[in-house]
Predict the structure.
Amino acid sequence: MQETFDFLTYARQVRQVAGSLMSSGRNAAEISGRMHLLAVAMERDLVRFGDSSELSRIACSPGCGACCVLNVAVLFPEAVAITWFLQRRLSGEELENLRIRLQELVRRTRWLDDEERLFLREPCAFLDKQGNCTIHVVRPLMCRAITSTDPEACRDAIAMIPLNGAPSVEMDLFQKNMVDTVYCELGKALEDLGLDHRPRRLSSAILALLADPEMVSCFVSGDTVLIH
Ligand code: SF4
């Protein structure tokens, strides 16, 4: 099934579905709900069209934070869904601690390109001490697109990238292509609707949304969302 999968047709379908979902999201709760539906549909398609023996080789799982030192890009509805999840799950004190961690991370990494960030090994603010992603159920699409079959190979590659000698990492390309397709087509669907479709850095976007929930109204009304 994988070899014959028609990604062009799938991309057109995703753009249509994403456009239909995003056109009716008027507030944070609705946008979060629609992002959840999009993620569920993608997971369903992975199972339906993917090769189960290949998918079962993917080693990425909660508890492996090997690659969580990379810059992660999100589209605004993804950031809204993550912030909504955090606001429902964390206490006021936990949210404040997270806000401080994000602020520090943004301060240290704002001007770093991907290689410089890797060199510093600055971990994601959502990675806990056990290597778990604390937002796993709503994690960004870019994080879901990492589909390594060998965590050790990831660690070796990340250690070597700043030295320009990174070995290749075997990945499940079917899942990677499918998630990349959903990310790209969601961006195009937002553009079709006249909504802000620019990718933002994960930490900056969540920090901005925690500080100013009114950003969601700007986004819904088609204004450019200002995230620094
Ligand atoms: S959001 Fe989760 S999976 Fe993605 S980089 Fe952060 S800790 Fe890792």
In short: Strands lie at 73-74, 200-201.
